[in-house]
Records
---
Amino acid sequence: MTEISDWIYRISRYRLIGSKCVECGEVAYPPRLTCYKCGGKMADYQLPRRGKILYYTVVKSLPERYNRYGAYPVAIVELEDGTRIFGLLTDVDNPEKGMEVEAVLRKLYTYGEHGKIIYGVKFRPVLG
Amino acid sequence: MGRPVIVGVGYTKVGEYWDKDVFQLAYTAIKNLMDEYGVDDVDALYVGNALAGYYDRQLALASHVADALSLYDTAVSTFSSGGASSAQAIYNAVLGVASGQFKSVIVGGVEKMSEELPAKVVRGTSLVENSFLVDYNGLTSFSLQALIAQMYMEEFGLKREDLSLLPVLEHENSSKSKHSQFRNRISIEMVLNAPPVAEPLTIFDVSAPGDGAAFIAVMDEDYARKNGFKYVKILGMGSASQPANPLERASPYMFEATSRALEKALSGAGITIEDVNHLEIYNPTSIAGLLVLDSLGLCKRGESAKLVGDGYFSLEGRAPVNTFGGAKARGDPKGAVTAYQFVEAFLQHMNMAGDNQIGDVKYSLIHSMVGFDISSYVFILGGG
Ligand SMILES: [Zn+2]
C-alpha cells in the first residue's frame, strides 16, 4: 500500500466506516464500491465498535512490516449489528472465543524510507 | 477454428537455485521443450510469473524472456496473478490457438522465490488477496485460511487429523517423483506436531517457496498432426470469480468460483465429473485442498477428507489427485505452478510418468485459483 492509497482510506480505517447497500441493505467491511449480493451502489456506514471474538488464530509465519515484534493474534469478530469482520487483536495475552472486544485506534506498522507510521483499528477486550 | 492440443513439455526440478535467476530457469525449461520435442515455430510466447516485479527484479517479464531466447517473431504476453499466473497464460494461449490466430504457442511460467527473505515471501504471496482485508490488517494467506479452517472443521465435525490426510498423500506421491521439491514421506502425527504457521495449520499443511520453470507447447491439432507430433487434447476450460472476502460469500468455505469454472469446463468437453479419473488441483494449504475437492461434486460438502482417507484420490485410487505431490510436495513456484500441473497431466497421458504413472488415464482435470478461490480456472484434458 502506497502512502497515497493509505491516506485515501484513512477515515474508513481510523473510524471503522464500512459500506451499506442502498438497494438491499447488505453491509461490508472493508468498504466496497458495489454490493456483492445485488450489484447495487454502496453508501458509507458506521459500524458498531463493539463485538465478540468468533474465531482467532496467532500469526506465526510473519509478513514483512508486521515482523518486528513476533507472533500476534488475528480474529473474526462479530460486531453488535451482526456484521463479521477480520481484525487484529491487541492488549490480550489469552484470547478466547466469545470474548467481548471493542475497536481502538492503534499504530499498525511503520514503513518506507521516511518511517511513515500507519494507524488503524485493532480490537481489545472490553474492560470491567 | 483451431483445436488446441499439447505436444510437448519442458521443465526444471522444483527447488532452490542459488546460482540461477528467473531468466536462466525460463531458458532451461523452454530450451528443453524446443529441443526434446522439436518445436521450432513459435507464434506466441506467454509467460506467467507472480513475484519478479514485487522483488524489484523485472517487469514485463515475457518480453525479456523472449529476448533472452532471441525469439523475436513472436507475440508475447505476461500474466501475473499469484498461483494462477500460468493458468491465465494457458487459458489465453488456448484461446489464441482456438481462434486460429496462432498455430503454435509456448506457454507456461517461471518463478524465483528463494531470492528474498521469508517475511517478504509471506507478504508477496499474500498480496493476491484483497490488500485492505489481508495485507493492511496483518493477516496473511495462511492465517486467513486458518480461520476459515476452524469454521469448516466446526461445521462438519472434522478433527485436526482430517486436515492432515491430503498432505500425507501428496508427500507419498512426491517421494517417487524426480522433479519434486520435497520427497520425504510424512505421517499424520508429523503434520500435527509440526511448528504452527497459524493454528490449526502447521508448516506441513502449507506449501513452501520454490524456484522453477515449466512450459508447454500448445498447437492447433491439424498443424500438430501434419508435423508428426503426438499430443493430448485440451477439451474444455472455464473460469469464474467470487468475492475475495470469504465472509461475503454464501458460505465462507464454499469454492463457488471453482464449481462454476468446473461446470463450464465439463460442458465444453461434453463430459461429467464421473468421467474424470485424474486430477491436478492447486492447493497451497490442506484446507484449500479439501475445499477444492468438496466443490467438485464428487461428495457432499465436508466429506472430501473422508474420500481422501478412503484412498479415492490415491495413486491407485478411483481418481488420483496431485500425482507428483501437488503444490505441497512437488513445490509451489507460484507463477509456474499451473504449468507444472499441465506437465504432469501430459506425462500421465503419454505414459511417461515413471513410478508415478497411473493406469488408463482417460480425462484429466486441472484446477488453478487466485488466492482463496477468488478467481478459478479448470481445464479438461484427454484423448491423447
Ligand atoms: Zn445489495
Note: Chain B has two domains: 4-116+209-233, 138-207+236-382.
---
Amino acid sequence: MVATTNKTRRVVIEPVTRVEGHGKVTILLDEDNKVQQARLHIVEFRGFERFIQGRPFWEMPVAVQRLCGICPVSHHLCAAKAVDWLVGGEQLTPTAEKIRRLMHYGQMFQSHSLHFFHLCSPDLLFGFDADPSIRNILSVAAKFPELGKQGILMRKYGQEIIQATAGKKIHGTGAIPGGVNKNLSLAERDALLKDLDQMIEWSRGAVKIAKDYTVEHLEMAKTFGSFDSNHLSIIRADGAMDLYHGGLRAIDKDGNNIFDHVDNQNYLDYLAEEVRDWSYMKFPFIKSIGPEDGWYRVGPLARLNTCDFIDTPEAEAARQEFMAVTDNKPNNLTLAYHWARMIEVLHSIEKIDQLLHDSDLQGTDLVVRGERRQEGIGILEAPRGTLFHHYRIDENDQVTMCNLIVSTTSNNEPMNRAVQRVAEEYISEQMEITEGMLNRVEVAIRAYDPCLSCATHAMGKMPLEITLVDAEGKVLDKRSKSA
Amino acid sequence: MSQTITLKIDGVEIKAQPGQKVIEAADAAGVYIPRLCHKPGLEPFGSCRLCTVLANGRPCSACTTPVVEGMVVENETESLQNFRKQIIEMLFVEGNHFCMFCEKSGNCELQAVAYRFGITAPTFPYQWPHREVDASHPDILIDHNRCILCGRCVRTSRDLDGKHVFDFVGRGCEKKIGVNADSRLADTNADISDQALDACPVGALLRKQTAYQTPIGQRLYDLEPIGSEIESTGNTN
Ligand code: FES
C-alpha cells in the first residue's frame, strides 16, 4: 500500500516474512526516486562469543547450538570438529565419523526440505505477485496437498535421523570431543530404512520441481537479483562435494581457483572479516582480493559451483544438468539456489542410504583422544553454507576466545547485492510500490535461506522491518512486525 | 534390642526403627519425600527444606527429625507441595542454571525435582548473580553458577574422604562453597577419586572431560522421574 504526497512517498508494507530469524531492509532513494542503495540490517547484538568465555571447552558443541533453533545440528557438529582438535581427537573412528555424517545429512535433508516446501514453495507455485493471503504454506497445503504432505514428512524423516544420532530432534548431545556418545542400533536403523525409498522418490520429485521452475523462468532468473561473484566451500581431496569435511576452495565468477584445499586450521591466512558501522553482521572477504571485491557466496549454489563432481550417482546426474544451463561455468543466478538446494537434498538422501547400509554404524569404538591443544578450528558445510567455529582455551580448559563465521554472515554482502539488484529493477522510479515488488525483495533474500538469528548470534528474537529513506536521509516510513 | 516404631505418613501406617529419621523410614517404606541436601550415608544437614513435612501438625525437615511412636506425618498435601515448588523455583533463580547445555542435564537432581513438580519456568525473577568457575584443578571443575549450597560435598569430603577440601564461606547471599586453600581448587589435596565428586546433586562439582558421555535417553532421570526408584523398591506393606 502506498500513499503519495507532494514530496515524499509513504509506504506501508508488511516486513520480510518467511525468512528464518529476523532482519530489516532499508531502501535508500535518491532525488529522482531511484534506488541508491539497499541494505539488509541486523538489529541484534553479538552476545554469544562473549557469553561462552570462561566456559569449559567441552560444553561448546552443546552450548553453541543454542545460537540457533533452525540449524542447531550444524553448530553442534562444527563445534565438535573444533573441539576434536583440542583433545587431539580429530582423526575420528569410522563409527564416530559415520554417525556424525548421518546426523549431518539428516540435518541437511530436513533443513532444505523445510525451506523449499514451507518457505519458498508459495513463491514458486503462486508467483511473486500473488496475494499474500494466498502466497503461504497453508494455501500450498490446500491446493497441492501432496506437496504439503511431502514437505512435512521429509522434514520429519530428517529429524528422526537427528534424534537417532543426537538423542533429540533439536539440541541433542551426540557429538562429544573426539567422537560420539552412541552408535546406531539395529532397531533404530531398521526404523529409518522403512521410509527410505519414499524419501528418495520425493527427493527426485523435488529436484524436478526446482529444475523445471528454473529452466522455465531462466530469462527472468538471469537478471532477478543476480550478479557475478566468487564462491566458497569446503571440498574433498579429490574435488568431490563433501558437506562434512574437506579443505577450503574458493573460485571466481568464471570458475578459476582463488585458493584450493586450504587446511581448515589455516583459514585465517586466507579469509578476513570487516566490520561496517551500519551493521552488526561482519563482512568476511578473501584476503588476497581485499574487502572491496573479495566477498563470496556460500551455500548450495556455491557448493554446486565449487565441486568437480558429486559422489552419488543421481545427484551427480542432476548436477550435470544444472551445470549445463550455464555451459559448465559457475552459475551466478540467485534463483538457482533453489535448484542447487534440491540437488543437495537428493545427494543427502543418497548418502543416508549408503550410511544406513554400512555396518560401521553399529561399531562400538566411539571416541579417540590424542595430544591436547590450546586452539581448534572446525569447518563444515551447513545447509546455508560454510560454517566456521574457532576456539582458544587456557591451561585450565576454559574458553578464552571464540570466533564464529556463520553462513549467513558470508552471504551478507551477496544478499545486499541481491536486494539492491531487485530494488533497482523493480522499485526505482516506480509511481507505486506494489506488494509484488516488495515481495521480490523478500524472494531475493529468501533464495539465500538466511538465518538472521544466528548470523548476529542473537540471544533473543527481533522484529523485522523495512524502511524507505529519501535523499535527505529522512525516514519516509517504517513498518515492523514481531516474529 | 531394637523395638519397631509405628507411624503414619499420609494416612498409611509404616514401620520404622528407633533412631531413624522420618525420611529414612519413608524411604524404606517406599514413600518418596522430596530432598536435595539429604544423601544417605551423610550426616543430616537440614538446609534445603525441600523435605519439609508436617509431623504431628508441625512443619519440620524430614531428614533431621527422628521418628517417634504414633507420629502422624503429612507429606503430599497440596500446601506442602506448593511450598516445595517455591523452594525449587527459588533455587533456580538464585543461581545461573542453564539446563539446556549443562552437562549434568538428565542426571541433575535439581532439574529432576523441577520436572517432578511440573515446573517449566520459575515465577520469581532471575537474580543472575555473578559467580565464578574454578577450573584450576587438572581433573576437577567447580562451577559456582550451579551450586545450591546443599553442603553434600562438604560433608562427604570431611566425613568420607577424610580431607575437608570444601567448606562454606561468607554469609547470606554472599555464602558460597570455599576450598581449603587460598583461592584455588588446584592448591588443595582434592583428587579425581574423591567421593565428594559424586556427592554433588547438580552440575557444580564435576570431573573434567566426562561431559555428555551418556546419550540422551539413558541418563538417570530420562525415563523415570526422580523418586520413582524409592517408590518402586520400598516395601509399602
Ligand atoms: S533434604 Fe531435608 S532439608 Fe534438605
Note: The domain at 5-76 of chain B is CATH 3.10.20.740 (Ubiquitin-like (UB roll)).
